[in-house]
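Journal club prep — side note

Before the paper discussion, L.F. wants everyone to see what a predicted structure for a comparable chain looks like in token form. Sequence:
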Amino acid sequence: MLARVALRRKNLDLLLVTYVLLSLCATKYLSMHHIGIIFALFVVQLWINVQDKALGIADIPLPTPLSRSLRAACATHAVRVAHIARIAIVVALLPSLV
């Protein structure tokens, strides 16, 4: 999911370079307390991508019933669905932070 957001904002190279370098170092030196560093890497990557452009419904991959219904509802009820869309984006992007 994070890779999709980075690709849409043309920051995929930044994500891959840092992740590959971290992975190479982790093959020899990884301990359980380094998991927080990997988590921080994903949080920073998401933060960098959000700075370029705010997250939107288009960042949710298709085809999911939730995203289809959100897109249809946004066309007619933009104000009311905005809160649902924000919640859906957070829920959809949570697995990429793990």
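L.F.'s comment for the group: The first helix runs from residue 2 to 8. Keep this in mind when we get to the figures.
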